[in-house]
């Protein structure tokens, strides 16, 4: 029974409302979760995950205490944790390749838990809202279905998604929880915001903006290194058009949920486009085709490793 709630297998559902009706405990836990005050996570010992990325590690990691991600509107934030080993993985899923992404998330945790004699896999799903296009609803159902297909028993502990993560402000639907953190030392999963989204924030955003490879594992827990790339994109001077557009136009055409984006969304898009204009190709960013590698510096931030 791959996906479990209250020790019973979760049947395939055609709507999230059907799931919540069958399992009132999920409603209760979602309401409790969304009522928590978001924690502002300091950069030291933070491993930040951007859209279409995931990362996993264990409590013994000396460089990471919290794995986190934010700015999820229709996207969903996924945490899988093994209660025996304490290994945890966080993914920022946008629906690009859900069916291939979920097995990689599970593998990332189970491969770090091979020596654990006891314990189980627990799942926390947070994100989406009651958006007009029902993009969130589709992603919620696909994620649930993908986890149901896994061989391992997976216990659904938190399911604060779509209509249970929705609030109406001035007549506009938007998410309650935009960001999530998991403390890999304690196992706590909590609403969060983040002061930094690095390392290599613009590079990672550019990689996603240009539609590059999805399902990116950005962390090597054995070396405690963040690894980015290599990746490719083609020169596109036409993107400069967007830098002269007003906020409303950028939101309308470059967002899946224009009315629900966080305040910094437009500036983030413009920064990403400027980065792509400054780097028409990615070749110079990855000398000899090697990834950019970062380790934790004595100051507590991520520092580029010289690989020469």
From TrEMBL:
<feature type="compositionally biased region" description="Basic and acidic residues">
    <location>
        <begin position="298"/>
        <end position="308"/>
    </location>
</feature>
<feature type="region of interest" description="Disordered">
    <location>
        <begin position="288"/>
        <end position="308"/>
    </location>
</feature>
<protein>
    <recommendedName>
        <fullName>Protein N-terminal asparagine amidohydrolase</fullName>
    </recommendedName>
</protein>
<dbReference type="GO" id="GO:0008418">
    <property type="term" value="F:protein-N-terminal asparagine amidohydrolase activity"/>
</dbReference>
<dbReference type="GO" id="GO:0006511">
    <property type="term" value="P:ubiquitin-dependent protein catabolic process"/>
</dbReference>
<dbReference type="GO" id="GO:0005634">
    <property type="term" value="C:nucleus"/>
</dbReference>
<dbReference type="Pfam" id="PF14736">
    <property type="entry name" value="N_Asn_amidohyd"/>
</dbReference>
<dbReference type="InterPro" id="IPR026750">
    <property type="entry name" value="NTAN1"/>
</dbReference>
